[in-house]
Amino acid sequence: MTQRLNGASPAINTSAAKSKSFAAKRLFSALAALLIGLVLAEVLLRTISLFAPGMGEFMNAPQVIKDATLEYRFPSQPSDPGAGVAHGNSPAMAAKLVAIGDSITYGSGVPAEEAWPRVLEAMSRDRSFRRNGINEPLLAANISCPGYGPVHYVWLQEEALRLNPDIMVATFYLGNDIFDAFHLVDLYHFTGQIKVPPYEWPLEKILDELGTKSQSERQETADLTHAVVPDNRDALALLSLFRSVYTISEYKFGSASQSGLGARLFKGLIQMSAYLYPENWYFDDGLACTTFSFKRILGAMNLEDPWMKTGFHFSMEAYRLMKIRADKAGVRFCVLVIPTKHTVFRDVVGRCTSRGLAIPASYFKVIENEDRIREASFDFFRKSGIAYVDALPALKTALEQGAQPYKISVDNHPNAHGQAVIAKFVLQTMEGNGNEPHLFDIRRESIKKLSQK
Length: 453
Description:
By secondary structure, this protein is α/β, with parallel strands linked by helices. It is built from 19 helices and 12 strands. It comes from Desulfomonile tiedjei.
């Protein structure tokens, strides 16, 4: 009796062992069923993609290939003509605008027809673009690719001039364009091996030297690992599907003004992900809401970094060369400066400091870096006689009026409303306002006075 009280019963031990064994079998069966289900789903998705091309296009991002000059590009030609725009001359295409840019101009995160060049064209059909006293629609072509920068634009300008445009707008995104400019030159010319950036090297000389390298040599140097546009075609179809569903959800529910169960669930997901990544900051004052990222943008805008200082130098030189080439071709040229959403939200975030909101120091550093780039670039444009416009006031006004121009997620690209704000701003600036000069009719006297300041 004493032994039975002090020791476990053999029946109890056997029962516990059976219970553990049964639980382990159930866990193994569940994992096996999950694995088999995932494999079957993967096979099913790939099979559907073979017989339904639309499904494959839905799941896969646009494919990019290596390029000897641009590092990477879309398989087709770089240009993506807007609606109604074709190559060649036509009397109906007398007024044309070509937009050259990166992912913002390309329209990342929105359908192609909601990218600002397409929206601008649609607006001009309703409002009519005034040119030499003739009212006619402004047909726009969009020549852009995610991850490109000002030095890419110099090469793309050749493609743009083949469209025989009247107006050429090259964008300058303050968030990372100076990094993209240096990266392309560093990749092909310096191959990342130099220790001190040659700040004084003229970009024109570098581009000429790049032209002496063989096509095959430059093609071999190109590296798709730096491509902003991912190539999902070799990845799991399930991951591609998940990515596509997230992108659609971000587009559909990513506005701060959205309501409903789907919008609340997506907002909760965004808020939770911001807490998981300390380099991000989720901001919500009840009216405006978004997530700010700092990890990459801080380094890409730091003019104290000699590499970024060189990138800024290359960027300005790129716009100067584009201006010279456009003048020779009789094309009016302008730089459209696009701010980061950090600066667009500056006043809204600033008002929350009085309420005791803790604002990360990184946020203020991004603003400081951007202000320096803006002032330095504007000074260069004025002294070089380059027409430029800044989309910051228009985007800030849109935010103040309650129509948020960015998504609530960490995505730094304007949403559909933000793209429309940029399009309307560019169109209105081109048309002029009362006694103000038109965007591309800047008087030489004004340029001369500004350059002397």
